[in-house]
Design goal:
By secondary structure, the protein is of the alpha/beta class. The protein folds into 2 domains: 5-177, Rossmann fold, CATH 3.40.50; 184-387, Rossmann fold. The chain is 32% helix and 16% strand. It has 13 helices and 16 strands. A 7-stranded parallel β-sheet has the order 3-4-2-1-5-6-16. The protein has a 6-stranded parallel β-sheet with strand order 9-8-7-13-14-15, sandwiched between helices. The structure holds adenosine monophosphate (AMP).
Length: 403
């Protein structure tokens, strides 16, 4: 067996069925995992390293255990699922092995080629505010590793021991998944083909201010939907009824619209919206022009005329970046706008990037496979921070990509 060893940080923070009950061993079964997409996304890197003769130890977290062990947040079901997907037994390594004086994580592999360490956030040093404590854990983790691979895009914006500190201790590379994410974002941030259309939606303007500021330098067109559109409409003096408006950001909205005009970026706001009394009260939902929103209702989706206009801009784009749903897509009566935009992005022949989190969930809910897009990001927070123009701590020390 080879003695080359790679420690790999992955994102296995998968959704689990809260109602599932533990087996006789006290752990949840692998069937409690409701979406194993993140485990599957890590397979190419794991297989590549194994094929190249590396012994592989994976480090990951689940949930926010705040430094305390709990069987409901154990990675045991994930180890079982991974073993099924790889078609080979893998070692499940307890956290006590990190400190064990008789050897490293790799010595716990036994005959297995791949091992998964228990939820690293059970160790409070992982997310500690103290640089020293994080470095201390990173040193213990990396003992006997020849190489560190960062392949969990969902955590690259986190300053945590197994993401950031570890990369300063041994040669560090981006895994295949992180490399693909970096390359897609590099293209839209640094060399987008024009026309370049940016589509933004979601709950709050305040979450997207920095994204708008950053992308106004390169985008040609900005399409704004979701709840955030109502702050822009209100800033233009329209009555938007009970729609969500961030009153403390009305001035920012005005300022961003002025900045867009100055930079000659075309901004499209909704011309019509679907209204109802509340997100949970879809009966009686209907669409109205944005100039006709009755005082007692709220806008919960973009309307059909707006979908047409947005879709037309998107289909003719050479680059599209989309972050944030156009409405409350979780409720069918308010999903048409988001699904219409998703279809247009899927139909676009240009380079198309879907932000992670809600936007990726929305395209899947629209029934569109990931291969209809150039790239569907696996990280919500990380993709947003890249679009804001930030340098992410996990990526700063990666000098190379796994090839
Ligand atoms: P974000 O996390 O910022 O991407 O926001 C996503 C959430 O915004 C989703 O859960 C949507 O249901 C919600 N959302 C989108 N449009 C609206 C709207 N018009 N009113 C209320 N919530 C909305």
């Amino acid at each position: 067996m080879s003695n080359k060893s790679a420690l790999v940080r992955v994102d296995f923070n998968v959704p689990m069925d809260n109602g599932a009950s533990a087996g006789s061993d006290g752990y949840l079964p692998a069937s409690a995992i409701t979406d194993d997409g993140r485990i599957r996304a890590a397979l190419p890197t794991i297989k590549k390293l194994s094929d190249d003769g590396f012994r592989v130890v994976l480090v990951a977290h689940l949930g926010r255990p705040k430094g305390e062990s709990s069987s409901s947040l154990s990675l045991k079901p994930i180890a079982d699922r991974l073993s099924e997907l790889l078609g080979e037994s893998i070692a499940f390594i307890p956290l006590t092995q990190i400190k064990a004086s008789n050897g490293s994580l790799f010595s716990a592999l036994g005959n297995a080629r791949v091992g998964l360490v228990e939820n690293i956030r059970f160790d409070s040093r992982e997310t500690s505010k103290s640089d020293e404590e994080r470095l201390d854990l990173a040193k213990e983790l990396v003992r006997d590793a020849d190489m560190f691979i960062l392949d969990g895009f969902g955590v690259v914006h986190r300053k945590q021991a197994s993401v950031t500190e570890i990369a300063s201790l041994v040669p560090a590379k981006a895994g295949l998944l992180v490399a693909k994410e970096m390359s897609a974002f590099d293209q839209v941030l640094n060399s987008p083909a024009h026309p370049y259309v940016v589509v933004l939606g979601g709950a709050k303007v305040s979450d997207k201010i920095q994204v708008i500021r950053n992308l106004l330098d390169s985008a040609d067109t900005l399409l704004i939907g979701g709840a955030m559109a109502f702050t822009f409409l209100a800033a233009q003096g329209l009555e938007v009824g009970k729609s969500l408006v961030e009153h403390d950001h009305l001035e920012t909205a005005k300022e961003l619209l002025a900045l867009a005009e100055q930079k000659r970026v075309k901004v499209f706001l909704p011309s019509d919206v679907v209204v109802a009394t509340a997100p949970g009260a879809p009966d009686g939902a209907h669409h109205v022009a944005v100039t006709q929103i009755p005082p007692q209702v709220m806008g919960l989706d973009i309307g059909p005329a707006t979908v047409e206009v947005f879709a037309d801009q998107i289909r003719n784009a050479s680059t599209v970046v989309w972050n944030g749903p156009m409405g409350v897509f979780e409720v069918p009566a308010f999903a048409k706008g988001t699904f219409g935009v998703a279809q247009a992005v899927a139909d676009c022949k240009g380079f198309t990037v879907i932000g992670g989190g809600d936007t990726a969930a929305a395209v899947r809910a629209a029934g569109l496979d990931d291969d209809r897009f150039s790239h569907v990001s696996t990280g919500g927070g990380a993709s947003l921070e890249l679009l804001e123009g930030k340098t992410l701590p996990g990526l700063a020390n990666l000098k190379e990509h796994l090839t």
